[in-house]
Amino acid sequence: MKKIGYLLVLLLLSGCGFRLQKTADLGGERVYVDAPPRLQQAVAQELRIDTTAQVVGNPSIAQAILEIHATSEQRILSLNSSGRVAEYGLFYQPTFRMYDPHTGKVIINQQTLVFHRDFIYNDAAVLATANNIDLLYADMRKSAAQMIVYRIGVLFPRVK
């Protein structure tokens, strides 16, 4: 009876289009990640986990360079009745491209991602708010790293 249940679950999952995520095939390319330190670590980790690429620490031996620039911004979203900040919006905007360092040929054209998080400000807990901001930016960096690697995995085989 259990075997029939497992078979039924497998049939339902395959019928709805569900597929396990595969490792992106980057042909074993040696990739150097040129990015701000914390984003560089996150992207390098995602590349090691989700692709066949080898992350290298020296751009001179790389077959491809992943260049990432990121900006962050904090905006006031709302004020309370006494005119103090009640809510902030955090924005994180990484821009990336991939190119061959030896020929200068662009492998993946420049792309920009935008991540946004809102949070309620509490002036009675300034330290907690600062920690919350750091956690939200860390979450956006992780999301950015995952999305960058996902896009590379989708685009890389088509442009190579």
In CATH, what is the class?
Alpha Beta
Total separate domains: 1
Task: Let me know the largest β-sheet.
Answer: 6 strands, mixed
The count of strands amounts to 6
Which whole number gives the mean pLDDT?
86
CATH superfamily, please? Lipoprotein like domain
Q: Helix/strand-derived class? A: alpha/beta
Distance between the termini: 49 Å
Give a verbal description of the structure:
The protein has 160 residues and is an alpha/beta fold. Helices cover 39% and strands 32% of the residues. A hairpin with a 5-residue loop joins strand 3 (64-79) and strand 4 (85-99). The mean pLDDT is 86. Strands 1, 2, 3, 4, 5 and 6 form a six-stranded mixed sheet that branches. The protein has a single domain (2-159), classed as 2-Layer Sandwich (Double Stranded RNA Binding Domain), CATH 3.30.160. The radius of gyration is 21 Å and the shape is flat. The termini are far apart. 22% of the residues are buried.
